[in-house]
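Supplementary Methods. Inverse-folding protocol.

Structures were first reduced to a discrete structure-token string of length 261. This string, shown here, constituted the complete conditioning input.
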């Protein structure tokens, strides 16, 4: 197994892994996650709802005939993953996992080393154009055909202008009939105190930029939003019971959009 970073450091991927009940985390990550849970007791629920949304959205897209997926910022492997969800509908689905965290890339590569329909490589979400142009992506994913690109709980860790540019580059590059799957942290004047509490749980070098719903909706631009639209991830209809309760102090919004044509 790929080794984790020194015990005194934290990462967003490892904190998220802990919230999901995973083992790819260290003592500092667990301490940060517990601080987050003290501030927002429903954070674990939302993490699980985010995962349930991923599975439901990917299955829906696969059922609509899309056979290739690009997961940008997937974090550590955790069931259900994109390839597991897609292949429950389309057994020949192809998946690219792209993450800026070297630990995530190493661990995912280790777990999926024998899967010829998966590619794993390092890339930064803020430069999505470079990700889509990478030969390692092109060796498996044909961008001339419909593709599903996922940004799950990634965009709120980017400055707003960079998040806008990253999604815009994907919208422009992917073929008609492609899909965008996004979850992103919402923020308004009512829950700004909650965002401060969440920020405090992460390292000083980790930006957390929740945005108003209208700005998150703009990620989908002229894409067609699938029902139920852009809604709290805890309210997304899934076969999982995680969506039965709402996060009161802060929220993650979820949406699936289709490029017309």
């Amino acid at each position: 197994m790929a080794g984790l970073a020194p015990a005194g450091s934290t990462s967003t991927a490892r904190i998220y892994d802990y919230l999901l009940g995973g083992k790819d985390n260290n003592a500092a990550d667990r301490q940060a996650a517990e601080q987050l849970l003290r501030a927002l007791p429903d954070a674990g629920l939302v993490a699980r709802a985010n995962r349930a949304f991923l599975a439901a959205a990917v299955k829906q897209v696969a059922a609509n005939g899309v056979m290739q997926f690009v997961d940008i910022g997937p974090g550590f492997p955790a069931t259900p993953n994109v390839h597991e969800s897609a292949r429950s509908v389309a057994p020949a689905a192809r998946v690219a996992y792209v993450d800026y965290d070297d630990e995530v890339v190493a661990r995912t590569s280790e777990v999926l080393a024998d899967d010829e329909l998966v590619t794993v490589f390092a890339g930064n979400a803020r430069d999505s154009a470079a990700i889509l142009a990478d030969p390692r992506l092109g060796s498996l994913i044909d961008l001339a055909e419909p593709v599903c690109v996922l940004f799950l709980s990634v965009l709120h860790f980017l400055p707003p202008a960079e998040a806008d540019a990253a999604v815009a580059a994907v919208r422009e590059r992917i073929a008609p009939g492609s899909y965008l799957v996004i979850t992103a942290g919402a923020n308004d004047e009512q829950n700004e105190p909650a965002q401060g509490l969440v920020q405090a749980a992460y390292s000083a070098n980790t930006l957390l930029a929740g945005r108003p719903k209208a700005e998150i909706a703009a990620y989908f631009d002229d894409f067609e939003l699938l029902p139920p639209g852009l809604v709290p991830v805890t309210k997304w209809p899934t076969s999982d019971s995680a969506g039965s309760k709402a996060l009161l102090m802060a929220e993650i919004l979820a949406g699936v959009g289709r490029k017309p044509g």
